[in-house]
Amino acid sequence: MRERPCAAGRYGAHGSMTSATSIAARWKDNRLSTLPVDRAAASDGVRMAYREAGLAVPSIIWVDGPVSLATSWASAPSSIGANVHDTIIAAPHRRATQRLGTHADHPAPFPCDQSGVDCADAVSAAVRAAVIEDADAIRPSLLLWLRRLRSRLTNGSRSPSFAASGSSQYELCWLGFTACLLEMLEPHAGIELSGLRLIAENAGWILPHSHVCWLSDRPTGLSFDRWGRLHSSFGPALRYLDNWSVYAWKGTRVPSWIIDEPQCITLDWIDAQIDPLVRHAMIDIITPERFVEAGGANCLASDTTGKLWVRKWPYRTATLDTWAAVEFPTEDGTSSFRCVPAELRTPTEALAWHFGPARSAGERHKRHGAYQATDVQPLPRRRRLRERDRRPGSGEQGRRRR
Question: Is residue 159 part of a domain?
């Protein structure tokens, strides 16, 4: 892990910098942990946090994963009370961050950017986004929804979304990181955060209400690539105890059969795929070489450096998606393929784009870390959810190639 050069300037001593570095490394590991949680310790932390906030100790409900948590929360009656996420978690975190700011040479809180620990930030964001996408799709029954609507109209308040109602393992770990730093600088100041630190160390997700507090386990499996994208070439990239899982290929969520049964990927199913991101993932899984050999792309241009292959998916007078790759010879006499932007017109331009100097880290990522170089917009969430259920043998045949 990179040591932050600002740490020594802020706290003045090499020992403090070393301690801050070890604390950051510990909480980075906790953010990506898939180890079983200590439910008893986390429950004790909930009781301590509620008492510290001046609230009565709630009923504590444990579930096996955040989507199960969302299901239980969506079906809960209004007697669970108001959401107290801001009182229990957000407000103490803000106060601790402000106190850390008093130890800095400038008013910016520490950590100043919540980054610098490998790809943990990218993985955290990807896991949270995947959970919230499915959790937000869970809706209560009509009767319960009408009761909650009446309660909101009576009280004049609006129920927060699932994303705003709780905190994930990754957000909790930043709170635990802040609490440990504050305790290192002010040994007696971290007492009010001790309960929250127990939660952060031993829970995967928390959703607190005044009378009920939900907690969930950590994931049992987490796989990602060096760019911090959810990725697994066999099995789910993210999995919880409740059997909810996410299949992903280099950051793109794909139907499970694409990973478990890649032999079922055919040109017809690639053409039938509505989501362009999933379509490009399917091509990458079977490899561009096999896609071209099967007749999936047309040769746009050829010169002494190689060949430029392009495939367009039109609809009426519009082009919905375009895929392009450059084929070039290697030193051992074989051919290699690299995905390139579709607007390039010659193999020379494509090779210059891929092997030329990158002007930014984002461009370098697009060149060497991605499987498609074209800026493709994903489908709306509801369309993506429907597309995941489509698979070979499900009764729906792939559309004819356009």
Answer: yes
